[in-house]
């Protein structure tokens, strides 16, 4: 009889090393580089799409040179300080008033009947249309500019707060009432925390619209400010400087909105912990 050889197990293959997925910052950096590359190619080849032309658009290198000159300019600090002051003041007033109005309108039917119709009429009016009236209402140009940024931030905050209040779980309110919570305590301990995520979203959107309205605000009589710098560059036909001003406004708007979102997540641990 032939000897039966023992079965041998097939040799194990060493598992292939999986490459770790690219980090979030890496993907974001690649996205920005791709946008810069497309911009450079469109300008280099003078891309013309019929309704869109890059023949006279400044190239990234020209914008970078203009940004370097602005960074060395002694006026940069004054531009930033003026814009931050106007946006901060307008947004701060809009946040206080917008959250208060949103809580009232979202919770009290009488307040909704009396306050919501005027707000809905005023909401579609663009910021530039408020310039003549703001000049008549405020004795100083600084007050007019703060008012324009205030108008831009107010309506997103009000509407998001109303949405948050109206979508607080009714069972949560009923349970709080069953435990004896009434009046002001119901607002501060149940309704406001329940509406907090929508309020933070409205604040972040309102901050973005503040910066969106900055150029309009500083068109009035500004002598300093990033919006004024952008508008002045247009009148002087300094096209690379226009792009620099736009990018600075975009970066400041993105950073301030992200800061509000982060603070909201930090103050609301019941929404999944700190981020």
TrEMBL record:
The organism's place on the tree of life at top rank: Bacteria
Stored InterPro entries: MetI-like (IPR000515), MetI-like_sf (IPR035906)
ABC transmembrane type-1 domain: residues covered: 80-260
Residue ranges crossing the lipid bilayer per the database entry: 84-109, 145-165, 186-205, 242-267
Main location (coarse class): membrane
Keywords attached to this entry: Cell membrane, Membrane, Transmembrane, Transmembrane helix, Transport
Similarity annotation: Belongs to the binding-protein-dependent transport system permease family.
Protein name: ABC transporter permease
Organism: Roseateles violae
Highest classification ranks of the organism: Bacteria, Pseudomonadati, Pseudomonadota, Betaproteobacteria, Burkholderiales
